Amino acid sequence: MDIHIWYTLLSALVGGVMGARGRLGEIRSIEMLHKRFESFPEAFAKTLSPQRISSRPVPQDSEAATKMYASIFSPFWNEIIKSLREEDYISNREMDLLMMPSNCGTLRLVQWPLFLLTSKIMLANDYASDCKDSQKELWHRISKDEYMAYAVKECYYSAERILKSIVDGEGKLWVERLFQYLNESIERDSLLVTINLKKLQLVQSRLTGLTGLLDTRRDC
Ligand SMILES: *[C@@H]1O[C@H](CO)[C@@H](O)[C@H](O)[C@H]1NC(C)=O
């Protein structure tokens, strides 16, 4: 009998220690999921899909490497989300928020599922309108939340792409010149001098309206 109790205690203890070492049960809340999601692609690619990495060279540049891991991880993640939808655990809207972009395109930035990025742009915009110091300070504040930084960058790239894709001729040249100008002032750390950040709220609402229009056009 005694040995039985000892065995139970010992196995619970060993199991607990092994679980803790394997970081089992570490993700208990949605905040934890947000925090840890960034490390999923690399962990997945290295642990569960090593032959896929060995077949191609891992880029030296850390951002390019993360992008590559994300492209390996996203089809698997999306399969899980799709099956959750098929089983009716989540709605269509939830599925859209959870799906991860394929990350196979030419954009060098890693694209994350929308649930990690929602509301970040609005918050970043608030930071921008409050900002009284420098571009560096503002970027520092935004990058404290890495998903906010991703959201801002993706939004900037996408705005240029979308605008370029819907206009041609004179309009395209205008967009090109605008973004060249913005890029240059970002490089020179003088964005706050070049544009009035308070007006960004207006730009945001116009761009949101535009994407809404484009979306209904697609549905027609
Ligand atoms: C502006 O910078 C972004 C990011 O580096 C780049 O993708 C884009 O092509 C640049 N646009 C212009 C017009 O130089």
From TrEMBL:
UniProt key word Signal: yes
Sequence ranges assigned to domain Callose synthase helical in this UniProt record: 113-216
Record keyword Signal present: yes
Keywords: Signal
Molecular-function annotations in GO: glucosyltransferase activity
Any one cellular-component term (Gene Ontology): plasma membrane
Cleaved signal peptide residues: 1-19
Protein name: Callose synthase helical domain-containing protein
Organism, as annotated: Triticum turgidum subsp. durum (Durum wheat)
Lineage, uppermost ranks: Eukaryota, Viridiplantae, Streptophyta, Embryophyta, Tracheophyta
